[in-house]
Amino acid sequence: MRRKSARFFEMKRRRAPIAVLTAYDAPTAKAEADAGVDAILVGDSVGVTMLGYASERAVTLADMRHHIGAVRRGAPDAVIIGDLPYLTYETPLEAVASSRLLIEAGADIVKFEGFRADLVEALAAESIEVCCHLGLEPQTHEQKRIKGRQAEDAARLVRDAIALDKAGMAMLVLELIPEEVAGRVTQSVHAPTIGIGAGRLTDGQVLVITDVLGFSEKNFRHNRRYEEFGRLVRAAAKAYVRDVHEKTFPGEDNIVHMDKDQLAGF
Ligand code: KIV
Ligand code: NA
Description:
Helices cover 42% and strands 14% of the residues. The protein contains eleven helices and eight strands. Strands 1-2-3-4-5-6-7-8 form an eight-stranded parallel β-barrel, surrounded by seven helices. The longest helix has 17 residues, at 151-167. Its EC number is 2.1.2.11.
């Protein structure tokens, strides 16, 4: 079977930017697929953006399966990348077992954080396509600060990426690193790189859909906020509550009546 990441390698070769968005539910996944997104990431960001957890670390394999399944049902033909949650890929055996659970739920490609070439090899040996994730690694880095600013850290990042590439990664997410570092990594690996807060020189971009929609109060420098969804939801809910309280909803156009002849015998 053709690898799901093959198209992204071709896009890298053609220098055609790859557009990735996160999604966590069926209708959003469908909207993104209709919009022509190249891949959908079901990130463990779901924990904070959708489930009200304080950290990505609270996300479980069951959570990921639940949301990957929803995204797959909403976007049957999309390429879906699924995050392996914190502490579910300690050993190669565990990484393979956890990945199988995500794939069974609907993921095409699994993603994990950190420099673990042993895991990439183990997964590749099982024909599981792997997306690596370097730079800011939210599962282990408590502080959401930019990584790879110092020349020494930047050089290590490039070295790590090259080793993961040799081990057989299919994609690489680069999070919150200087543009120059992301550019160097992108030139140094065969696999397509997807940046978030990593500048313009990666092979693609990924953003978190709730940030794009403006669901949260907080904005980030790396994000472009295309809508004010939080404000929209509040305004719609407020109008609905008002209409119910004032008895203007349901209106005549929202209801059904019995037929006259039936009503006579009722
Ligand atoms: O979980 C997530 O949404 C991610 C992206 C920020 C790359 O890993
Ligand atoms: Na993630």
